[in-house]
Amino acid sequence: MFLIRFSLIATLFLLSSCNNNCVDLEIDLPKKNIAIQVDHLEEDLFSQATNSLSKHELLLKKYGTLYVLFYAQMLNEGDPYKDNAPTILNNYINHSSTQEIKKETETQFKDFNPYKETIEKAFKYVNHYYPDSSIPIITTFYSNFNANVIEVNNRIAIGLEMYLGEENKVVKSLSPDFFPLFIKKKMNPEFLVTDVMHCYFHNRFHENLGDDFISEIISLGKIMYYIEATTPAVDEHLKFRYSKEELEWCNSNEMNIWEVIINSNLLYSKDKKQITPFISEAPFTKGLPQESPSKVGVWLGYKIVKDYVEANCIDVLDLQLEKDVRKILKSYKPNE
């Protein structure tokens, strides 16, 4: 059992901490209207209103590179401009398994408005911090179980079937060779909104701060803080793709996690074999007990960044400009 151990140093951290939090992310947003555009590729794909040739041409024209990616790679059919592409697409659409997944997706997401409203609210925060930023088009689609959220030419595309829920019959039927249980447990709609924001910020603000462990996790921790700043009302565990119990495990074992990193000389290690298990999807974080969730390094990076922000009373823009990893680390107080 991984028990919490408080050292003298940890106690001193607690005694010397400041109780005043000078950073409040629950800000009053201006009344400026931020309307996001939402396209539904899957509706155009499964529409009965057009024949196969017209449909294929419509999808190419409307969705461009995203549809090319869908046809060529996600359906694995190669060149979408070949003469028989519309026929191949039509055969795929009418396949029984495709129709079953279509039915399940339509049931789960019969009303996308709650997701749209939450995403729209997040981009109001983005506009507050970055008023000159462009708002991507949100596009839902069927990825043939290839992608959660991807961005193509300022379109953030959401593979809806990847959010059917771990108890959905289609998800349960997926081969464990390609979709092991720990992956299926994360295929829940509650992660959709924060996955969109993670895609947005990672593609725009992820930076290489160095090639050692601490630089990697702080870089990822900054991304998580941007997500926190733009989705303050969303439950914290969802931002890490955690359950409440997984986040509680991290919080309860923070000092132990830190001791493992220090005692194993991981903090400034450049060994990718050591770093990768702390930032990748897996049943648990290798190097920690099997009760741990995956990607504990990402969570720890966020904690380090949050301590830095709150200790120095800086805003999101100042955080983005700060590149000194050791300066950010200096404010970190485990278990505080």
Descriptive account of the structure:
The chain has 336 residues and is mainly α. It folds into two domains: 38-201, no CATH class; 209-329, no CATH class. It contains 18 helices and four strands. Strands 1-2-4-3 form a four-stranded mixed sheet. β3 (149-152) and β4 (155-159) form a beta hairpin. α3 packs across α5 (85-93) and α10 crosses α11 (213-230). The longest helix has 18 residues, at 213-230. The protein starts with 7 loop residues before the first helix and ends in a 7-residue tail after the last helix. The relative contact order is 0.12. Mean pLDDT is 92; it is low at 1-19.
Mean pLDDT: 92
Which band does the percent of strand residues land in? Answer: 5-15%
C-alpha termini separation: 22 Å
Count of strand segments: 4
Indicate the percent of residues in helices. 40-55%
Number of helices: 18
- State the shape: globular
Order of helices and strands: HEHHHHHHEEEHHHHHHHHHHH
Q: What characteristics describe this protein?
A:
about 325 residues, mainly alpha, 2 domains, four-stranded mixed β-sheet, 18 helices, about 5% strand, globular, disordered N terminus
Topology:
Layout lengths: L7 H9 L21 E3 H6 L5 H12 L1 H10 L10 H9 L2 H13 L4 H17 L7 E5 L7 E4 L2 E5 L9 H5 L7 H4 L7 H14 L7 H18 L5 H4 L4 H9 L1 H10 L8 H4 L20 H17 L3 H6 L3 H5 L7
Parallel strand pairs: 1-2, 2-4
Antiparallel strand pairs: 3-4
Helix pairs in contact: 3-4, 3-5, 7-10, 10-11, 11-16
